[in-house]
Amino acid sequence: MKYRKLGRTNFEVSEMGDGLWGMSGWTGSDDRESKSSIQLAVDLGCNFFDTAWAYGDGKSDGLLGEAMKQNSGKRLYAASKIPPANDRWPALPEFKYRDVFSAEHVFKYTDLIRKKLQVDTIDVLQFHVWDDSWTDEPEFRSTIEKLKRDGWIRFFGLSINRWEPENAIKALRTGLVDVVQVIYNIFDQAPEDELFPVCQELNIGVIARVPFDEGSLGGKMTLETRFPKGDWRAGYFGPENLPRTIERVEKVKQVLPAGMSLPEMALRFILSHPAVSTTIPGMRKPEHVRQNIAASDAGPLDKGLLVELKKHRWDRKPQRWSD
Model pTM? Predict the structure, then answer.
C-alpha cells in the first residue's frame, strides 16, 4: 500500500481508502462479511475509511467504530458526513442554508457520529451536500470554527454534488475547508478543469469517490443487469442511463492492456493524478479488498494509456435519476 498526504491535514493516508456505503446502503451486504473485509483492509495497510450517517442511519459509522476499537494500536482515519436536514440530495440553490445545515442540526449529528465512531474527536467531518451560494452565510463559518475550537472535529470537508465539481470552489477559498470529496473516474474527468488546480493551490485534500461509476467500471454489468427495488442503483442504472453506460464501458474495455482488469485500470487512472489524496471504492468483500489494494501497489498508468483514457471523458449534468 502506498500513502499520500491528505492536503494540509498532514494525515498520511492510504491512497486506497475504503468507502462504506455499500455495507449499509446497497442490497447484498452481510454484516459479518463487511466486518471481516474492514479488518482485512486494515491488515493490508488501509488506514482511511469514509462513511456517513446516511449509510443506514449510522450503521456504517458503527461498523467503523467497532473496527477502530478493535485496532486501537493502529492509527486509522475516519471521515464521516452529516446528512442534510431537509433530506434532499443534491443541494439546490433555492434551498436555504439554515434549512439544511443549521448549527443545531450540525452539532446534533456530529455528536451522534462521534458516539457511533466511539471517539471524542472526528478526524474529518463533511457536509454530505453543498451549494456554493451558502458560502457567505455567517452561520457556516461560526459553526465550523466552533466544531474545531471545541475539539469535536480535527478537519472539515465538503462532499460535492454529482457532476458539479466547481460548486464548492468559493467555499474552498474561505479557509474553512480542509478536504473535498468529489466524483472522479474515467468517465467523470471534469474535476481536472477547475477544482483540482484550486485544491493544489490551497493544499486541500482530495477524496475521489465513485471510482467505478457506481459499478459500471467494475466490468460485470450488461444490458440485462437489474438491481432490486430499494437499491439506489436500480434508479441510477435505469432505462435512461444503463444502455448508454454499457456502450461506453465496452469502448473503454477496448484499450485495456493485456493482463490488466478493468477495475485495476479504473483505480490506477484515478491515482495517476497528483491532486488525488485517496480514492474510496467499496470493499465489502475480501476479494475486493485484495484486488483494490493490489492496484495501489501497481502504481500510476503509463502516459500513453492515460492519453487514450482521456478520450473517454463523459460530461453529464444532474438528472432526476442521478440524485
Answer: 0.96
